[in-house]
Amino acid sequence: MTEWYSRSEEEVLRELSSCRRGLTDAEAHSRLEKYGENVLYEREAVPWWQIFLSQFKDLLVVILMIAAGISMATGDPESALVIFTVLFLNALLGTIQHRKAEKSLESLQKLSSPEARVVREGQSVTIPSSNVVPGDLMILEAGSLVPADGRLLEVYGLTVNESSLTGESLSAEKHTGCLRTEGERLSPGDQVNMVFSGSLVTSGRAAAVVTATGMNTEIGSIASLMNRAEVQKTPLQISLDHFSGHLALGIMGICVLVFGLSVYRKEPVLDALMFAVALAVAAIPEALSSIVTIVQAMGTQKMAREHAIIKDLKAVESLGCVSVICSDKTGTLTQNRMETEAVYINGREMETDQLKEYAGSGKKDAKLFLMAAALNNNTSPSAGDKEGDPVELALFHMVQAAGAVPEQLRLCCPRKGEIPFDSARKRMTTIHEVQGEEIMFVKGAPDVLLERCTRIINPAGADLVPSRQLSASDRAAILNQNQEWSLRGLRILAFACRFGVKWQEDPETDLVFLGLAAMMDPPRPESRPAVAAARQAGIRTVMITGDHRTTAMAVAGRIGIFLPGDLALTGARLDQMTEEELEKKLPQISVYARVSPEHKIRIVKAWQNRGHIVAMTGDGVNDAPALKKADIGIAMGLGGTEVSKDAASMILADDNFATIIKAAANGRNVYRNIKNAIQFLLSGNMAGILCVLYTSLLGLPLPFAPVHLLFINLITDSLPAIAIGMEPAEDGLLKKPPRDPKEGILTPGFVGQIFFQGGLMAGATMWAWSLGMRQGGEALACTMAFSALTLARLFHGFNCRSSYSIIQLGLLSNPGSLAAFMLGSILLAAVLFVPGLQMFFAASDLMPVQAAAVGMAAFLPTVVIQLGRIFRDAQQ
User: Fold this and answer.
1) Is a pLDDT exceeding 80 seen at residue 246?
2) Is 623 a catalytic residue?
C-alpha cells in the first residue's frame, strides 16, 4: 500500500489527480469502471452437494459401502440397509457442521456505510457508498461511518473510533500534516492523519481525499486475509485420519487373507465373500464418527454453562492440547474501561481510597481538584460504563468515590462557557460561576498544561483559590511523577484553574496547577490467577495488542505474562525481523504492541511452525484473520464485533480470560473421554475380529451373522460409548502438560490394551460358542456367541471409563454408564426373547442354564481387568 500519511496534502491530491473541488461526474464514473465498486468481496463458497459427497471419501466408509454392496448381492438386504442408513446420517451430520462454520465476511460487509457525502464539481452531494472512488473528497461528521480510506485535508476537533481496526476502545484524535518516518511503516493506529473505512466518527468534522476503496482499503486487506486463511484441521481430526487409514489397510489385508484362505479350501465364492463382509463389519466401528460428534456436543453444552460457546464442534477437543494462547489485551485481560488509579496533589501521590480520606479533611486543594474533574467533564450522570468518553467516565467515578456529588457540583457551579478539546491544543477548558465569581478549569496533557501554569494550589490559604508561586522544584517533581506513571503505562491528565477570568484572546494563561490523575484500563481480577493456572498447565500466554508498548508491558507485568527476561516487540520491529530471527526469539517474546492484522497472522503461524496448537483471542475486525488462522479462534461475546464472532470457533460469553482456561480443562477431558470411547469400540471390535478369524482359519462355521455385528456396533456399543463421553474430569487434569498433538491415537500402549482386552472378550465369546455347538448346533452356538459378546462389551463399558479401577471411580460417579448398561441389557433381552425381533436377528431360544453360562462368560473379562487394576494400584 502507498504510505499516504507520509505525503503532504498537496502531494496526495496531485498523485490522485484530484483537487479540493472534488472530481467531476465524468471522472468519477470513469474511475468507478477502472477501480470497481467500493464493496468487499468474498470467495465463492463450496456447494453443499460437494461437501456432502466429500463425507464419503474416507477409506473406512468405502470399505463399508463395498460390504453393503456384497450383502445386497448375497441376499442380505437388511444389513445393507442398516449400513447405508448409518453412512447417510453421518454424511448429513458432517455437511451441517461444515456449513455452520463457513460464514466469514457477511458481518464485515455490514460495517460499510450505505451512503457517503462527497464533493463533486464543488458541490456537496450524497451518493451510495459503493460509488465512492479514489480521489473523491469525503465530508465526515460526528455519527457517520467512514466509507473509504482517506487522507485528511481539513480537521475540526475530529475523533474517530477505530476499534474495529486497532482493537482499542479509546477514540483516536486526528489531525492533518505529514508524518515522516525513517523506513518504518506506521500501523493504522499511528496514522493520525488518515481515516479508514468502517471507522465511526465520534466527534468533530473533517474533509478527506479518498486514497483507497473496496478490497484495497485496510478493512479490505483484512477481508483478503480472511479469504486466504485456511481452516486448520484439529489434532483429533489428524489423529482420526491416520487411525482410519491404518485401520482400513489392516482390515483390507485381513479380509483379502481370509477370502484367499476360503477360496483355497475350495469354499464357494459367495460364502468366501460373506466371510469377508462379516469380518469388515466386525472390524469397522460404524458408530465411531457419530459417537465422537455426540461426545463433542455434550462437551459444548458443559462449556456453554461455563460461558464458553463453541461454534465448531471440532474445537472442543482442540482446546485440550492448546499450548499457546495469543490473547488480546483490551476487554479480555483487562476490564475494557478506564479507571483512575492514583492522583498527585501538592507533591503527594495518593490512591483513590486515600483521596477520599484527604478530601474529607476539608483541604481546599482536594476540593478544587475534584471540582475540576467533575465540572470540566461532559459525562452525563446517567451514563453507563459503556457510554461516553472512557477517560471522562473514569474521572466522574473518581469524584464519586472521593465522596463528592458531581451532579450537585454542577448545579452549584453552572457552566458559562467552553473551549472544547482539540488534538492540536491538547486541552479542554470550561468556565463556571462559583460563589458569584467566574473560575476557569482546564484539563489536558501534563507537559502542555504545565507550560501555562505560573502558580500551584496552596491548601493553607483562605482565598477561594489559594495559591503560591510554582517553583522550579515543583515543576521538576510534577514532571518526575508524570514520567514515573508513564513508564507504568498509565494515561495521565493534568488539571489547572484560573480565578476571576474574563473571556479574552488567550484566557488559558497564568494558570494555577491543581494536580494530576493517572488512569488505566485495569486488569480483570481473575486474569492473574488464570495466567498462573495456564502456566501450571503448560500453556504459554502471549499478549498481542494494538496499544502502545509501554502500556502493554505494564499490564502484562501486572498479570504475570511479562516476566523478567522476556521481550516486548512493536509491529514496526517485527517487520524488520526475518523469519529466522523471529523463530530464534519467539520463546522469549511475551508482548507484541502496535500490531497489524498481518502481524497477528505471522505470530500465530510462527508458533504453529514450532509444532504448537495455538488459541487466539480477539474482539475487533482486525483480529478476524488471525482468529481464522489459529487452531482455536476465540471471540468476545460482550464486546466483540460480529465479524470476529463469525471468524472464531469459540465465543466467550463473559469476555473473561479465565473462561479460556476452564474451557481448556474441559477440552482435555473431552479428548480423554473420546479416546476412552475409541478404546471401548476398538477392543470390542477386536473381540469380534478374533472370533471370526479363529473360525475362518480353522474352517469352522461363522460365530455371528452380519446383522448380529451391526446390532452390537450400532446399538449396544453406542450407549456405553456415549456414557463414557459423559465421564467427569479427574482431579489434577490441568496440572499435566498438554498432550503432544503429533501423537496419534494408536500408540503401542493403546494398541496393546486393545489386543489384551479384545482377546479376553474373544476367549469368553468362543467358550460360549463352543458350548452352544456341543449342546444345540450351529444356530444355538451363534446365539450364545452373539449374546456373550454383546453382554461382555456392555460390561466392558465400565472398564473404559478410566484407567482407574471401578472401586476408585465409584460405580455411581457416572450414572450414565449404569443407564447404558441397563438399557443395552434390555435391548439384548428383547432380541433374544421377543418373537418378532428374535426372528429378524436369527436368534435361537436359550435355556436358563445357557443364559447363565452366557452371563458368566461375559462378566469374566471385566473381573480380570478390574482385579489387574486393583493389584496395580496396591503396588504403587
Assistant:
1) no
2) no
